[in-house]
Specification:
heterodimer; A: Glutaredoxin; 5 strands; about 30% strand; B: alpha/beta; FAD/NAD(P)-binding domain; Glutaredoxin; about 25% strand
């Protein structure tokens, strides 16, 4: 998974081609850290079909709020520079995979 | 694919981890099945000021990580598995997980914990993760220099509100009670009243959360006057109690009307060999320390259960020759006399019969299972099955006749 931040978000996510999935997390968010290994597995399984990024919201607070993300964990899907879907809090990896399949 | 354990612990919060420590330290093969990282709700609270021995010196995640390492150091396995189905009725209990694995064991400790309650007010669901939150440590830093409201006034609400003041500009606590009345402990209340960043709205409940894609305001209702007022805010944190995570336990063990697991003070549920511990249990105080305490008691009770079951199996059920099982109790005079009488009979009959004495004061379970209602009582077992029963006092001849009829 590609680590993105306020400097790279525009190029890596908004200007990217195809489907981009962004895992918003922070080191203080225990549910995020629970979910992350499964997200990484998913990223490997669907390698090449979509782009997988993670964004540490600590230090990227303004960017997160500009993306209307104010709660963790949040997994957002982008296409052609627009957010097209989002899952937030109480997320299971099955929900993420189902949403990914729906969008692919 | 089935792996056999002595104890399966469902849930890896403080209750489950303490059960793991006590179980594996008794040399019992113990596994904790936990979805994701261990720690439970305690791992989502940063400030943990009341766990004995750690004066301000630890955090929720820190203490939980230490407990998990402690359990593992004695040999507890902690598996990242989500339990989806349980078969608890037989002697061997089977726990199925989402990954398709079956775990089997002779005893189970249920410690599934609880989750934050939602109120389902207008806007709450739609604005989750958009300013509506149930976890201060997860989301607090989004609200630096912003304003938030906290709904609730118990320990969790007031303590998490204090934590939020480290980030937010103002934290407004919405309290349903009259001015000055809080459900939380006095120390936290005093600290909160002295905190200049905390503001209070009394006699009020949250009616609605408004916002276009992100929280912008809340509508408050004064329960005394019925008056509605709108207040601008950037975030809403709910701490209004918890609900037990016992959906998969319905019809498996006895639950109360709110879904909490009913146990006695040995943590025994309605099913033999199945124990419960922690916040999912019907109890008076839900804290890390009481969860850990439950876990210790449950593991100790499970250990006794395993020893008694194993003992009964070896001594009675697997025995080739006839076995007389005498149920006695230290406080029943007649049963003491009966036992010494039986000892003499057993001496006379020599090797052809075996006598096993069960103190029903210490081991209620076996007596209950065989429907023993009177002390003394005597059961005759032949090849693992009950062949005859004598209730109350008996004559020497009646016992000898019964044994002879079994040998024929």
């Amino acid at each position: 998974m590609k680590e993105v931040d306020k400097k790279t978000f525009e190029d890596e996510v908004l200007k990217a081609e195809g489907l981009v999935m962004v895992d918003f997390w922070s080191p203080k968010c225990e549910p995020c850290k629970e979910l992350m290994p499964y997200v990484a597995e998913l990223a490997e399984k669907y390698d090449g079909k979509a782009k997988f990024c993670k964004l540490n919201t600590a230090g990227n607070r303004r960017l997160s709020i500009s993306q209307k993300v104010m709660g963790l964990p949040t997994i957002a899907f982008y296409k052609n520079g627009e957010k097209i879907a989002e899952l937030t809090q109480d997320i299971t990896i099955d929900d993420v995979e189902a949403k990914l399949n729906e969008l692919l | 694919m089935s792996e056999a354990y002595d104890i399966i612990v469902v849930g890896g919060g403080p209750a489950g981890l303490a059960a793991g420590i006590y179980g594996s330290r008794s040399r019992l093969k113990t596994v904790i099945l936990q979805k994701g990282r261990p720690g439970g709700q305690a791992a989502t609270t940063e400030e943990l000021e009341n766990y004995p021995g750690f004066p301000r010196g630890t955090t929720g995640p820190g203490l939980m990580e230490a407990m998990a390492k402690h359990a593992e150091s004695f040999g507890t396995e902690i598996s990242n598995e989500e339990v989806v189905e349980l078969d608890l009725d037989g002697e061997i209990k089977v726990v199925k997980t989402k990954s398709g694995k079956d775990y089997s064991s002779k005893s189970v400790i249920l410690a599934p914990g609880a989750a934050p309650r939602t109120l389902n007010i207008k806007g709450e669901q739609e604005l989750r993760g958009k300013g509506v939150s149930y976890c201060a440590t997860c989301d607090a830093d989004f609200f630096e220099e912003l304003d938030v409201v906290v709904v609730g006034n118990g320990d969790a609400a007031v303590e998490e509100a204090m934590y939020l003041t480290k980030f937010a500009e103002t934290v407004t606590i919405i309290v349903i009670h009259d001015e000055g009345i809080l459900d939380c402990n006095k120390v936290s209340a005093e600290k909160a009243f002295a905190n200049p960043k905390i503001k209070w709205v009394w006699n009020s409940v949250l009616q609605e959360i408004k916002g276009d894609g992100i929280v912008e305001s809340v509508v408050l209702k004064n329960i005394k006057t019925g008056e509605l007022s709108e207040m601008e805010t950037n975030g809403v944190f709910f701490f209004v109690g918890t609900v037990p995570k016992t959906d998969i336990l319905k019809e498996k063990v006895e639950l109360n009307e709110h879904g909490y697991i009913i146990t006695n003070d040995r943590m025994e549920t309605s099913v033999p060999g199945v124990y419960a511990a922690g916040d999912a249990r019907d109890k008076y105080l839900r804290q890390v320390i009481t969860a850990a305490s439950d876990g210790a008691i449950a593991a100790f009770a499970a250990e006794k259960y395993l020893a008694e079951e194993e003992g009964f199996k070896v001594q009675v059920l697997n025995e080739a020759k006839p076995v007389m099982v005498a149920f006695w109790a230290p406080q029943v005079e007649a049963s003491l006399a009966a036992v010494s009488q039986l000892e003499k009979i057993a001496d006379q009959l020599g090797d052809s019969v075996k006598l096993v004495k069960i103190d029903t004061y210490r081991n209620e379970r076996v007596a209950k299972r065989y429907g023993i209602e009177e002390i003394p009582s005597l059961l005759f077992f032949n090849r693992g099955k009950v062949a005859a029963k004598i209730t109350g006092t008996f004559s020497q001849q009646a016992v000898i006749d019964q044994i002879n009829s079994l040998k024929e």
